[in-house]
Specification:
The complex is a heterodimer.
Chain A (H helix, E strand, L loop, with lengths): L7 E10 L2 E11 L4 E5 L6 H8 L7 E6 L2 E3 L4 H6 L2 E4 L11 H5 L14 H15 L14 H13 L5 E5 L7 H16 L3 E5 L3 H7 L2 E6 L2 E7 L5 H9 L17 E10 L3 E9 L3 E6 L5 H8 L7 E6 L2 E3 L4 H6 L2 E4 L3 H5 L6 H5 L8 E2 L2 E2 L1 H15 L15 H13 L5 E5 L7 H16 L3 E6 L2 H7 L2 E6 L2 E7 L5 H8 L9
Helix pairs in contact in A: 4-5, 8-17, 13-14
Chain B lengths: L4 H29 L9 H26 L7 H15 L12 H27 L3 H20 L4 E2 L3 H8 L1 E2 L2 E2 H19 L1 H11 L1 H6 L4 H27 L1 E2 L7 H11 L11 H20 L4 H24 L8
Antiparallel strand pairs in B: 1-4, 2-3
Helix pairs in contact in B: 1-12, 2-7, 2-10, 2-11, 2-12, 3-4, 3-5, 3-10, 4-5, 4-10, 6-10, 7-8, 8-10, 11-12, 12-13
Classes of the chains: A alpha/beta, B mainly alpha.
């Protein structure tokens, strides 16, 4: 391969955001007819690199070379014109239109007077669909197709241009095993046509099955390229994680109390099945897994946002049914949701009102809200959590991410919950505030709260948790104590390697 | 000064600044264009303006809280007409014949009850079915208007009670009865929205419904209460107006919903919910009434008035958008 010209080459790409060097001199290339995996933890820089490649971000330094020609990518449309095609995890199709219309959206073949040349459109589409060996035709409405077939439509769209490189971003996240086989066939076909393929995935199984080489990013740095046939999971994991983390930090030095929350065989449709675990007072239980593994859905069920289809929830040993968030709050369960701005805060309200929102109906002086009592609560938790804001009148939308998250946490602490669920506690928060939030979570456990932390970041889960529940595809694969957990066995558990293949 | 404070200040004060502009413009223009010798800012003229603002104004206060809550109510005009029919007709019912003027509070009560019930019905449907309030109240607008026509066909419903007329035409401290009602309603609703739990939660629901649910707020009951309040205020508006006029046509109150929404939007309440103020709505109501009166004063006809109000509404919303866009530098994604 070495004497060939790469289909696509990235050289010394640098991209910085305020305070973060997201990509630091990253180089990477893919040969024609090669499947090249791009791996790294969340936040390692994979998405940023792909956004640079797609023209969404402009790099400060470095070059993109397609074939032998250096190009400056300014938009996704331009990238496509250069033969760089993205198959995204989220589909962007018009469900009410036919397959053919979707594939040629914006570039429908035309006859005189701007009329659509339907005959040519369907003929062209059927030709592409034939190449993909799919079981639907050009006139099918996209909304009637399964998710896997919709993904095929996205891929068909990629084939309308002479693609030099195709980037698959977690393409199998929503596919069944049978559908994966079809996808892999398509990738083989593209490969045979001399297209270079960049394959982004966390799933080791797939990586070993279809890729030729593997490049690893960590903390925005390029860490090396391995030949798939000559490596193993341990070597890849080692590259992805780098230095060994200090695991001694996560052991609790205080008394672990009684079981506050127990869940037995909890299921919710296809989202998660037979989930059993418990959380004791004074303990942090971390939930780790890939996006879509069902962690957030479990939290939402415990908080009364979803109705379980089976199983039991026990609070302090008593079986209980949680009807709504209001009910969950009354029973002492609190949720810090993963989307802080979309689900946790009223951005147009001030800090005080956000903090006291769940309990404002209890803070009354006659018919009116007791604003003095509200301010007292705000002051108390501002001091306790070290929330930096000019005052309670400040709109919460004007605070930094870290301080916003502290407002949400303070909101629930002031309700004195028994169980605190924190979903992605530090998403979108700068490094300094991150460690503050981590320390806060540890401190809350030592004060006797039962805490559940859901996170997609391994260092975070390892750092804050006393025990770690590893999930894959809606099931608990294994629960680790802090003594037995290692990065290797954790990554393997959430990649589905130790699981049975029935899923 | 905090960033954004200036634009907030401009937006809050904008409607009052606009009113001052109108006053100056019409006073000056009136000197040259008006057919009468009377000054535009004549005391009696202004007092009358307040009184004439009351029917739309009282409903607009209700619309403000429904819109802050993230909903809308298109059925207020029909509710207004139906309540008027109940008010005037119930005073002639034989069972109340021996009561004399004692029938007045009963008729008022029945009319107000009608509005509140119709509002509750709207709210209940929005709450329980989850259908968008726009659709639900669009249906209600047609349905309630149908009830008005079923009641008395094309005929007007009339009953003049002189005690009521005296009450409605009374002036206290110079202000007419209707004006006092407008002031009282504005004050009461201001307290509800700014000082009570219900008001706080209504803002929260309108701004971010998901976050409100996640804070344990029960969204449905709050929405229903707001629909009951606007229903009540639509019938209160009818009560105040028809106590004096004594006759209601089945078409009365048509397009009121649109005038009300115009006033609310002019006052700066967001169509998407979460932000707005009843005081600014009051400003919006007065601004529209001033515009009508002022254009009349300088000799414009009704058609011109509507054209101008329409243009001003669009201009104001465009300005508002510009002010909102400034100072918000988000990462381009």
């Amino acid at each position: 391969m070495s004497n060939q010209t790469p289909a696509l080459r990235l050289e010394g790409i640098v991209k910085t955001f305020p305070g973060v060097r997201a990509l630091d001199k990253v180089s990477f290339s893919v040969m024609p007819g090669e499947v090249h995996a791009l791996m790294g933890e969340n936040g390692a820089g994979k998405s940023t690199l792909m956004k640079v490649l797609g023209g969404i971000y402009q790099p400060e330094e470095g070059r993109i070379i397609v074939g032998e020609q250096p190009v400056v990518m300014t938009s996704p449309l331009q990238a496509k014109a250069k033969g760089i095609v993205f198959i995204h995890q989220e589909l962007s199709l018009a469900e009410e239109l036919t397959v053919a219309e979707n594939i040629y959206l914006g570039e429908l073949p035309k006859k005189s007077f701007g009329r659509v040349d339907w005959q040519q459109l369907y003929a062209q589409t059927d030709e592409i669909l034939g190449r993909l060996k799919v079981g639907f035709d050009a006139k099918t409405k996209v909304g009637d197709l399964s998710i896997a077939n919709q993904q095929m439509v996205e891929i068909a769209r990629a084939l309308t241009v002479e693609a030099k490189a195709v980037i698959f971003d977690e393409p199998t996240a929503s596919l069944t095993d049978a559908e994966k086989v079809v996808l892999f066939d398509v990738i083989e076909d593209l490969k045979a046509h001399g297209v270079g393929i960049i394959y982004i995935s966390h799933r080791m199984e797939e990586i070993f099955k279809i890729t030729d080489r593997i490049s690893v990013l960590r903390d925005g740095h390029y860490r090396g390229t391995l030949t798939t046939a000559e490596t193993d999971e341990d070597e890849i994991t080692q590259l992805m994680i780098g230095r060994k983390l200090d695991l001694s930090r996560n052991a609790s030095h205080h008394e672990i109390g009684d079981i506050a929350l127990e869940v037995r065989n909890l299921s919710c449709g296809k989202l998660f099945r037979n989930i059993s675990f418990d959380v004791r007072r004074g303990e942090v239980v971390g939930f780790y897994g890939l996006v879509g593994a069902g962690r957030t859905e479990i939290a939402e069920t415990l908080f009364g946002l979803r109705e379980p289809s089976g199983g039991e929830i026990l609070l302090d040993g008593q079986p209980t049914v949680i009807h709504s968030p209001a009910d969950a709050i009354a029973k002492g369960i609190s949720l810090v949701p993963e989307d802080r701005k979309g689900q946790g805060l009223i951005l147009g309200m001030n800090c005080r009102d956000n903090m006291t929102l769940p309990q404002v109906s209890d803070l009354k002086a006659g018919p009116f809200v007791a604003e003095g009592a509200e301010i007292a609560i705000f002051d108390q938790y501002r001091d306790r959590l070290d929330i930096r804001t000019p005052g309670w009148k400040q709109l919460v939308g004007n605070l930094s991410g870290g301080n916003q998250q502290k407002i949400v946490i303070g909101k629930w602490l002031s309700m004195h919950p028994n169980v605190l669920i924190v979903d992605e506690p530090t998403r979108g928060i700068d490094v300094g505030s991150k460690s503050e939030i981590h320390n806060l979570i540890r401190e809350l456990a030592s004060q006797g709260y039962a805490v559940i932390v859901i996170s997609s970041e391994m260092p975070e889960v390892l750092h804050v948790s006393d025990r770690i529940v590893a999930m894959f595809s809606g099931k608990i694969i294994r629960t680790f104590t802090s003594e037995e957990v290692t990065e290797d066995n954790l990554i393997q558990a959430i990649s589905g390697i130790t699981s049975d293949k029935a899923a | 000064m905090e960033p954004g404070t200036l634009s907030t200040f401009l937006k809050r004060g904008a409607i009052w600044g606009f009113i001052v502009l109108e006053l100056i413009f019409f006073s000056v223009a009136g000197e040259y264009l008006s057919l009468s010798d009377k000054a535009f800012m004549d005391l009696d003229n202004m007092l009358l303006l307040f009184k004439q603002s009351a029917p739309i104004g009282i409903i607009a206060i209700g619309m403000t809280i429904v819109m802050i809550n993230g909903n809308i109510d298109l059925s207020v005009g029909a509710t207004f007409a139906l309540s008027a029919v109940v008010l005037l007709d119930s005073m002639t019912w034989p069972i109340f014949a021996g009561l004399g003027d004692g029938v007045i509070p009963i008729a008022w009560g029945l009319a107000l009850m009608t509005g509140m019930l119709l509002g509750a019905l709207n709210g209940l449907i929005v709450w329980k079915t989850g259908v968008d309030a726009f659709i639900v109240t669009l249906g209600a607008m047609l349905g309630y208007r149908g009830l008005v026509f079923m009641y008395n066909g094309e005929q007007p419903t009339s009953h003049l009670n002189w005690t009521l007329v005296d009450f409605a035409e009374a002036q206290f401290l110079g202000l007419h009865t209707a004006t006092w009602f407008l002031i009282a309603v504005t004050a009461a609703v201001w307290f509800v929205m700014n000082r009570t739990v219900h008001g706080r939660n209504a803002y929260a629901i309108g701004d971010n419904r998901t976050a409100a649910i996640n804070a344990g707020i029960r969204v449905g009951p709050h929405m229903m209460i707001n629909f009951m309040i606007i229903g009540f205020l639509a019938s209160l508006s009818a009560v105040v107006f028809y106590s004096e006029s004594g006759s209601v046509n089945p078409n009365d109150g048509e397009l009121y919903e649109l005038w009300v929404i115009t006033a609310v939007v002019l006052g700066g309440t967001k169509l998407t919910g979460g932000a707005g103020s009843v005081l600014s709505t009051l400003g919006g109501v007065l601004a529209i009434q001033l515009l009508r009166k002022g254009l009349g004063h300088i000799g414009a006809d009704t058609e011109t008035v509507n054209l101008v109000i329409g243009l001003i509404l669009i201009a104001v919303l465009f300005l508002d958008r510009q002010l909102n866009l400034k100072g918000r530098e988000e990462l381009r994604i």
